[in-house]
Amino acid sequence: PDPDSPAVQMGAVSVIGDRHNAADIEQLADATDVVTIDLEDVNVDALAQIEAAGMTVFPTPATLRNLTNKLKQKQILAAAGLPTAAFRECSGQADADFGQLGWPVVQKAAEGGYDGRGVVILRSPENIDQRLPVAGYIEAFQPNVTEIAVMVARDQRGQCETWSPVEMEFDPNGNLLTYLIAPARIPIKLAEQARELAVKTILAFNGAGVFGVEMFILPDGQLLINEIAPRTHNSGHYTIDACVTSQFLAQYRILSGQPIGDTTQQQPAVMFNLLGAEGYAGKTIVEGLDILLATPGVHPYLYGKQTCFPLRKMGHVTVVADSLEQAMEIADSAKTRIRIRGEKPISEES
Amino acid sequence: PDPDSPAVQMGAVSVIGDRHNAADIEQLADATDVVTIDLEDVNVDALAQIEAAGMTVFPTPATLRNLTNKLKQKQILAAAGLPTAAFRECSGQADADFGQLGWPVVQKAAEGGYDGRGVVILRSPENIDQRLPVAGYIEAFQPNVTEIAVMVARDQRGQCETWSPVEMEFDPNGNLLTYLIAPARIPIKLAEQARELAVKTILAFNGAGVFGVEMFILPDGQLLINEIAPRTHNSGHYTIDACVTSQFLAQYRILSGQPIGDTTQQQPAVMFNLLGAEGYAGKTIVEGLDILLATPGVHPYLYGKQTCFPLRKMGHVTVVADSLEQAMEIADSAKTRIRIRGEKPISEES
Hints:
The structure is a homodimer.
Chain A: H1 6-9, H2 22-30, E1 34-35, H3 44-52, E2 56-57, H4 61-68, H5 70-79, E3 87-90, E4 105-109, E5 119-122, E6 136-140, E7 146-154, E8 160-162, E9 166-170, E10 177-182, H6 188-204, E11 209-217, E12 223-229, H7 239-242, H8 247-255, E13 269-275, E14 280-287, H9 289-293, E15 298-302, E16 307-308, E17 313-320, H10 324-337, E18 339-345
Parallel strand pairs in A: 1-2
Antiparallel strand pairs in A: 3-6, 4-5, 4-6, 7-8, 7-9, 7-11, 9-10, 10-13, 11-12, 13-17, 14-16, 14-18, 15-17
Helix pairs in contact in A: 2-3, 3-4, 4-5
């Protein structure tokens, strides 16, 4: 939709349009040999129409239909016997029984969610006003878990490759990701189990493409599937700098009918997101980028967004080093040196 | 010039034109914020004109003028006291004294040469018919040398970064590169000297951009500068897969006014060129690509050329591994599995 998108800024031929509009999706199909998505909030029916007309679409609209609806996704996981937290369908209305799985409870919207949108955690019955007033499901909140993700690629012939499981470290004071740590600091055997589970999951959805499979590790070491993203994913950005084949190169190869290539990780890596600084809004100002670019192992990525507001995702930074400890030290320092903010201070009164 | 160039095939906005035509270069300048080259056989006067009109051009036309003319390049090296083989200006005509530096002798054309074009080795006075009938220079042939190259990047503020020296291994039966080996198998101290010499060389030309500095290591360990390419270079292709910052990313950062980033090599690598197979010509046929893509550490790059003839450069393959020995073993095997050829056999009669 954005005539100033990162791809356009880098000189790509582009079609400006609305990802929910069937005519715009048809126009895109007319301009290309193959279609994919990088956001699941898209008109899947329109993708099915262009596929019926002969266009190659990966992941297939059939797979997307089962994944972009979070309730359907959860039902398929359960039906396939794949481990996932207990859940109940939920209308989202005030009279729904939000307490039937106990408290706290996680509510997820069936449609339109991505990147943490469409998800709320209700701590107790008093928080019922914070519910999403839309259909979806509730699931039991999992306390004291380690969150990991496994990126999986599956090519057109059905061959699967996985990348090392990665670990998400969250700010204890909020739900913000502080670091993505690659590889996850978990036992080798558990990492292998996670990769196997991720492959089984993608097979259950008959997916071709690149997928992010988010999982919980329970305190007893059990793996639960949290959610699946049918696309290249924040959890896989580090693969650009740390792996032989990145998630994006894998995506390109899958779409063009080639094998995926080698997903081996070459160096330990940590990734952090660049969020808009608190207290400012307006035209994007980037401070400290030069210092980061001059620091060994540091890879800043800016998404080229023209305006910035507090906590807006403006980019990310990957740090590679000879050890995770070293990467994290460099990242700790890098974090303090870069700031992305809007041009104007937000006055507390306004 | 090619409406089917690799960049166009990947969806880049492009201007179709002749790199020697000033009007076409102006048209390119109108369409972009900054201009660079990836081939030195270009109209430098036209680049100087767009620079005079306010366009940013890197390397600057002044630098390009001194590097694209091989005779001028050699004279500047000598004037700066940088080590290079003894040479004499040479008209290229039959009455020129090709023997004044002894035999064999290397003749280089001043203008229009690149990638080994515009260079001949004359073994003895009997080979005089093989001379290039154009102005340039002759230089003493260096026997028993090791050929290395150092990629250098210099940003707009003058900050230099180098990549590890790489080593060229040639087929003893011809002048064809069998492997580019990164890093070069030379002592650390010599590698440091080579990097320092490469930086001094680029400073002598006041270059900003990415440069390939080719050198000889004489049997006694002395370094001689062979030639400088004012652009991303075959010797630096391996940096895409093996280094934190590739030569291409460095080029982009320099052009956009940023620091270069970390040029550290993450894994040993070898690279070989993919040449059109003997005995065939016509529409390009690629055999064995899938096997290569399914082999760990192997990165094939095809340039998308629609027609193929014997020895035409059709692409390259980079192999990364935990050791050079391992990378070379994988590469030895990969070489036997991929073949790029024209569609039709060339009959010996035709």
